[in-house]
Write a structure and sequence with these properties.
This protein is about 70% helix and about 0% strand. By secondary structure, it is mostly helical. The radius of gyration is 18 Å and the shape is elongated. It starts with a helix and ends with a helix. The relative contact order is 0.08.
Length: about 200
């Protein structure tokens, strides 16, 4: 393993307790918030703790759901780097939009889009922003517009294979939802990735 790969290893191996806790929280969330919260909070690794808390908030009663999401946002700050914080917040933000907690979702999305510029290596910005975009798009495509604008700012499609893959995935999702992939492709700057996608989607 190269020293650079070691330096930018974004997902340290989780403890077994985190894997079990996240699974347990998801299993209990729909039937018992108290037990599910206990399981979520017992996850030692922030990445898994945030995901588990988001799964509990999905089913919790109104004010409690909002409180759990605030807790998840605080816990996200304990992730190992900016990539972890931005990418894992896709879970609480998605839940918040689905639960109609738009003030929380909008506030935390804005924070994540700002923090995204600090993600290293730059290629990893693409994956973190894709997670945010998908979380928003799944609720309402219009909610993903802010993320899309940030993607265009931070992720030139020819900069890395991860960036090229990001634009491919977004075009495929648009196409799969009976929305034109051309809207994604024609917003891209000229270059080899755009030409590749134009050919792939019959726009050349």
């Amino acid at each position: 393993m190269s020293s650079q790969h070691q330096r930018f290893r974004h997902t340290p191996a989780p403890s077994g307790a985190s894997l079990i806790g996240r699974q347990r929280a998801g299993q209990l969330a729909s039937s018992g918030t108290t037990g599910a919260l206990q399981a979520a909070r017992a996850c030692p690794d922030a990445w898994y703790r945030v995901q588990a808390l988001a799964s509990v908030a999905e089913y919790a009663d109104g004010k409690l759901a909002a409180s759990i999401l605030e807790e998840a946002a605080r816990e996200a700050q304990s992730c190992h780097d900016a990539y972890g914080t931005v990418a894992v917040m896709a879970w609480p933000i998605g839940v918040a939009f689905r639960r109609g907690l738009s003030a929380f979702a909008g506030r935390e999305l804005a924070k994540c889009l700002e923090l995204a510029s600090q993600i290293e290596p730059r290629a990893s910005q693409a994956y973190a922003l894709e997670k945010l975009w998908c979380a928003c798009f799944a609720v309402d495509p219009g909610l993903a517009d802010l993320v899309w604008r940030r993607i265009l700012e931070l992720c030139p499609p020819d900069r890395s294979w991860r960036a090229a893959r990001l634009y491919l995935h977004l075009a495929e999702i648009h196409h799969g939802h009976n929305r034109s992939a051309a809207a994604v492709i024609r917003a891209m700057p000229p270059g080899k990735t755009r030409r590749w996608l134009e050919r792939r989607f019959g726009l050349a």
